[in-house]
Amino acid sequence: MSADFPASTNRGELESDGRLLDVVCPVEKCGHRFSVDHGSGGGGAVSPLGGRHHTVVEYGGVRRVALMVSPTGGGHFRDQVFEVIATIREILRQQGEAMAVSVQTVFVAEAADVPAARRLFEAYYDEEMPLTLFVVQPPCGGVAIAVEAWAFATHTATVGYHGPHLVTVEHGGLRWIHASAGTIHQGRRSAYEQSAEAFESLGKVLSAVNASFRDVVRVWLYQGGITELEDGVERYRELNRARTDYFERVAFSERPLAPDSNGHPVYPASTGIGTHEHGLIATCLAVQTDRSDVQILALENPRQTSAFEYPQEYSAKSPKFSRAMAMRIGDHLTTWISGTASIVNAETVHLGEVEKQTEQTLDNIERLISVENFTRQGWPDAGVKLQDLAKARVYVKRPEDFEICRAVVERRLGRVPAIYAEADVCRPDLLVEIEGVAFSHLRSDAPHPGERRGGTCAS
Question: Given phi > 0 = left and psi -120 to 50 = alpha, else beta, which region is 53?
């Protein structure tokens, strides 16, 4: 990172804030160190900075930090960005060794603030700008910006910055690929055409590092006007039609990390959520490895109809995603939980009742990631508790429901760092959606499903 600002930024104006030198710091001068045993209890430790800012995760010699940062000081948008950057910087300074941020999602209340936020982040990160998504979903609680970010200790991982839409992280024989198609603006495109272009573009970005959708474990889709009608059809349904058409060309049944799929497609975990503008942002996480002790498992909830089996009344072509994607790496487990809502079987339940919808959503997640469900699907040594979440995102449809929703989430999840954002959910009758990622140990006292044999890096 560099303290030098790009020409497009008014340096004098920024310095007049009086806190510039506390915000911008070359990474080689900022000490960082992880010091938390991930195996003790939940996903790690919460920052002493006040509030639920971050979780530290360490396993297999790999150290990472999940940061969920919202400003508390109020003020001008620029001041709130400064506070967020200062908080991120301070969390990383506390780790005691060099850190690199690989990917971040920036939630903003107003689309007009995105250019200013982009300039400030570019000034701070300089040549180590992470893959950054600017999503117009107003953070709950009245702030103008909130940031979710992931950072790695660079003595255990190598972070490669390949441009604004592609970042790789390599460690321990694994390569993680963060890719984005950028923002696909609507223009004269239909929702189907916009979505088809997003998937095609994302596939091309992956191909730049010899990867494909067959390597993808997690997808995020931020769609403007998600429940609006277009020629009598909801835009999200058209997104699903385009996704299905694109995925028909992907060999999801031949994933190298899922040797026990028995020829069935293994779809990525996914979130499809609304934004306050009509662009479409598509991004994903892929993984490649030759290690024989790495496997993936697509999880389904016994109380919910699999999304890819929804009847046509919900979408002409059903959403192609798994309820969760789990990955075992040695004796540890990572579980990505798809956007989850108050749905039982295929129907929305607790209409109009945000408290009950939030409880049902968390019930669905708890059952999905339970030991019993992992055992049912062939991994008896795996299982996750809600408190194992390293972080959570909570999407709230109506601003007035925020405090009710937050009270339920905090009671159920404890001190898990979370960001709450205002967003339309993919059905008009759904009031809340929750996603997250959990890290946990595999159980040594349970049967092992067996190691993958003769794996090769996907390409």
Answer: alpha
The C-alpha atoms of residue 336 and residue 326 are separated, in whole angstroms, by 6
Other beta carbons within 10 angstroms of residue 410's beta carbon come to 13
Closest CA to 17 of 78, 108, 87, 90: 78
Same fold for the pair 1-165 and 173-459 = yes
β pairing state of 343-344 and 347-348: antiparallel
Residue 187's alpha-carbon distances to 49, 184, 239, 280, in angstroms, are 43, 9, 16, 11
Q: Indicate yes or no: pTM above 0.70.
A: yes
C-alpha 267/C-alpha 214 separation (Å) is 9
Query: Over 215-240, what HEC string results?
Result: HEEEEEEEEECCCCEECCEEHHHHHH
The distance of Cα 445 from the centroid of its chain, to the nearest Å, equals 31
**Average pLDDT for consecutive 10-residue bins of the chain (459 residues)?**
34 30 32 28 37 81 93 93 96 94 98 97 96 98 96 96 97 97 90 97 98 98 96 95 97 92 92 95 98 97 89 80 96 97 95 98 98 96 94 97 97 94 96 97 79 39
Q: How many whole angstroms separate alpha carbon 200 and alpha carbon 220?
A: 15
CATH superfamily of the domain spanning 1-165:
RutC-like (3.30.1330.40)
Boundaries of every domain in the chain: 1-165, 173-459
Secondary element (H or E) of residue 77: helix 77-94
Rounded Cα gap, residues 275 and 424, in angstroms? 7
Structure tokens at 152: 């790695």
Fold of 173-459: 60s Ribosomal Protein L30; Chain: A; (3.30.1330)
Hey, which residues does 259 pair with through a beta bridge?
none
Only one residue has tokens 């109009």, namely 352
Radius of gyration of the chain (CA): 21
Q: What does the alpha-carbon distance between residue 44 and residue 58 come to, in Å, rounded to a whole number?
A: 8
3-class secondary-structure state, position 293: coil
CA angle 387, 152, 32 (to 5 degrees): 100
Which CA distances in Å does 185 have to 188, 239, 345? 9, 14, 34
| Residue with the two structure tokens 């940061």 | 67
